[in-house]
Recover the amino acids of this structure.
């Protein structure tokens, strides 16, 4: 049995070796479709921004050249207006002249300062300035923020909602992003039935396929759901062959422990290589990963999940998801959001394996008003307990050698990425 950290290292190595044999395929995508994808090219500014000198405020653009460093309490003759989308088009302003101007409108070339409207008083065809305004004030200079041909986003960067204003303001309609990772997945088990089927004695409704799809839908992944496969080596081999011919990663559920009908590991061994099985993590000891030698597609990575719903979920999110993110971004493993929180009740457990306890994280304030995170573990941690999983929003990570932790201690938690902490 290997430690969780060793399993992570081995998986990372496996993925790195696999990636080295893969082409980095990219595809053009409409900006509106590109969220959550990774750029494969630098994005170069097509436009300088602002495109010309523009006003930062509503007020008056004045020509004050002969008035020495500041616009003081003088009267300016009003010559026209400049508003967004319709710049001033009259004669160049002469000293002592001004135009009405609005935020974002082009400042006429002959103006040097914008006086905000709160500091000005309109008198028919003239405007009296009420306060001092320093020369050049309230003007955003052309190219001040972005110069043409500068790099505004880098290859490898994740496209997030906060990047959209930048990219859209450059008139960019399409970006080059990395092709999605193709993940084929299937569940094994003669007892598994689909919703709507009648359950015979000992049957259960299959839930891991839906769970895998739900976790992975947040990432740039093409999901290939191969359904439920019966517990025979022939059926499992046929499914593995189909999966490895169509996907980069093959995920199986169930059939990896040491029971008489657990054929997955021996099938993977026959069709490729099992790098590791048995990881000192709880839940999820029967874990098995490696690769498959596909005929059409070259090698595919293989990640085996245990059958129990909770084990399957925890192994997928804690062990495999970080390396799947690495396969997607090719740069580094992004750890799931990890925080430190104060444990609310005493915890006692049997040590020996790194444990991920399902738990509820909440936020409140201490006596001084400082935000504080508190966490309490769900009562029972059995690996089939889906109710506790459903009510949790994080897992508490307990090191293999830890057996007792007192309430009030600080513990590490991984927050489910979709959690919204109110
Ligand atoms: P296994 O790893 O195949 O020995 O399965 C362990 C336990 O998980 C058994 O009680 C199975 O019935 C259950 N199980 C296996 N696969 C699934 C699945 N896809 N959905 C729900 N439960 C499952
Ligand atoms: Mg089974």
């Amino acid at each position: 049995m290997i430690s969780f950290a060793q399993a992570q290292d081995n998986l990372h190595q496996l993925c790195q070796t696999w990636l080295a044999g893969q082409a980095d395929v990219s595809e053009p995508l409409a900006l509106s479709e590109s969220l959550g994808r990774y750029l494969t090219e630098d994005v170069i500014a097509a436009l300088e921004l602002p495109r010309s000198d523009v006003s930062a405020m509503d007020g008056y653009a004045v020509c004050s050249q002969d008035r020495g460093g500041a616009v003081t309490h003088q009267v300016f003759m009003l010559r026209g207006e400049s508003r967004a989308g319709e710049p001033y088009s009259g004669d160049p302003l002469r000293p002592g002249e001004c135009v009405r101007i609005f935020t974002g409108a082009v400042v006429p070339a002959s103006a040097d300062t914008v006086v905000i409207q709160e500091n000005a008083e309109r008198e028919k065809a003239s405007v009296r300035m009420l306060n001092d305004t320093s020369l050049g004030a309230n003007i955003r200079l052309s190219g001040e923020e972005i110069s043409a041909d500068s790099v505004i986003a880098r290859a490898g960067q994740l496209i997030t909602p906060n990047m959209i204003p930048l990219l859209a303001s450059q008139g960019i309609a399409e970006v080059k992003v990395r092709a999605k990772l193709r993940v084929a997945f299937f569940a094994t088990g003669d007892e598994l039935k689909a919703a709507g089927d009648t359950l015979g004695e000992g049957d259960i409704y299959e839930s891991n396929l839906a769970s895998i799809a739900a976790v992975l839908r947040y990432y740039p992944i093409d999901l290939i759901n191969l359904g439920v496969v019966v517990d025979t080596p022939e059926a499992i081999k046929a499914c593995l062959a189909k999966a490895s011919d169509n996907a980069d990663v093959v995920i199986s559920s169930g059939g990896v422990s040491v029971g008489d009908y657990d054929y997955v590991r021996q099938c993977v061994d026959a069709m490729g290589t099992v790098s590791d099985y048995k990881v000192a993590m709880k839940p999820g000891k029967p874990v098995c990963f490696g690769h498959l030698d596909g005929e059409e597609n070259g090698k595919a990575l293989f990640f085996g999940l245990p059958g129990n719903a909770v084990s399957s979920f925890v192994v997928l999110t804690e062990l495999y998801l970080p390396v799947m993110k690495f396969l997607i971004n090719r740069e580094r493993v992004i750890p799931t959001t990890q925080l430190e929180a104060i444990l609310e009740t005493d915890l006692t457990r049997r040590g020996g394996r790194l444990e991920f306890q399902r738990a509820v994280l909440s936020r409140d304030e201490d006596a001084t008003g400082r935000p504080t995170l508190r966490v309490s573990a769900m009562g029972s941690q059995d690996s089939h307990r889906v109710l506790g999983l459903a009510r949790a929003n994080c897992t508490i990570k307990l090191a293999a050698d830890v057996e007792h932790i007192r309430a009030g201690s600080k513990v590490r938690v991984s927050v489910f990425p979709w959690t919204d902490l109110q």
User: Anything to note?
Assistant: Residues 309-329 form the longest helix (21 residues). The first strand starts at residue 2 and ends at 3. Helices lie at 4-20, 164-169, 208-216, 233-246, 264-271, 309-329, 386-391.
